[in-house]
Specification:
There is one protein chain. Strands 1-2 form a two-stranded antiparallel ribbon. It is mainly α and about 140 residues long. Helix 3 packs across helix 5. A hairpin with a 2-residue loop joins strand 1 and strand 2.
């Protein structure tokens, strides 16, 4: 028996109307505070620094502005544990270990210079008005 040629069939087009379902709107997340763009912005903020003091020919710097989270934490420490705790946090965040060591090892730091450095740290992390008016 000879092979038969394939049979041509006509396909029937069916037109069915599909309901279009609207895409679900994404959940409103408000302002996303911890995404990669925010992290990059905070890192850039911290990297933008200005001189605070110089010891032994080495100039030590602090950020020109700090992340608001640092201010919130310093404020909480100041109100819950006192100004010394807020100052310790400011020193840790704003100064490098090398800068803190340089201050401690510099025999010629005067009381007025010491006060200026500490006030600069506190003022940077707790801007005016955060703890109320200064006395």
């Amino acid at each position: 028996m000879a092979a038969s040629a394939p049979r041509k069939t006509t396909t029937r087009k069916t037109t069915t109307t599909r309901k279009r379902v609207a895409a679900k709107p994404s959940a409103d997340l408000g302002i996303v505070l911890d995404d990669a763009a925010a992290q990059a912005e905070v890192e850039e903020l911290i990297a933008d620094r200005e001189p605070l003091f110089t010891v032994g020919g080495v100039t030590h710097t602090i950020p020109k502005r700090v992340p608001p989270s640092w201010s919130v934490k310093a404020y909480n420490l100041a109100t819950e544990q006192g100004e010394a705790a807020a100052l310790a946090f400011a020193v840790e965040k704003l100064l490098t270990g090398e800068a803190w060591d340089a201050l401690g090892e510099c025999e010629t730091v005067t009381p007025s210079a010491w006060e200026k450095v500490l006030n600069a740290l506190v003022d940077r992390i707790l801007p005016d008005g955060v703890l109320g008016p200064k006395a």
